[in-house]
Amino acid sequence: MQDFLLNNYEWLRALHIIAVISWMAGMLYLPRLFVYHVDAEKGSVQSETFKVMERRLLKFIMTPAMIVAWVFGLSMLYANPGMMSGQGWMHAKLLLVVLMSGAHGMLAAHVRRFANDANEKDAKFFRIINEVPTVLMIAIVILAVVQPF
Q: Which of 79, 117, 130, 149 could disulfide-link 6, Cβ–Cβ 3.0 to 4.6 Å?
């Protein structure tokens, strides 16, 4: 299995990058939907439309993309275990990816709150939350490309 993965490493990397791009698109868009959803009156057509958009974005794009990103990322590590030894940047990157996954979970919890008309946060909160995936993504890309340590 390891030989197969190593022989197809570039495919793994390409599919990993595609999944990460899809995941990040959702991670950057969903909090923006929340900013607008906050201003919609509960029970209104607009609020119900946001609920559908948020649920579909999470269920059909973000969560599958996150799972695929993890699967192909871990497959690359399995194929090339030397990436973990003496590679401080990889350990830092994995920590940040775990934090990104936690941010994903937090956004999923907010989707559920909005679905139940139980959101208590304001638009300013979601504007700030929108920056978390951005900062994590920048750090992850720098670590993966520059490999500073």
A: 79
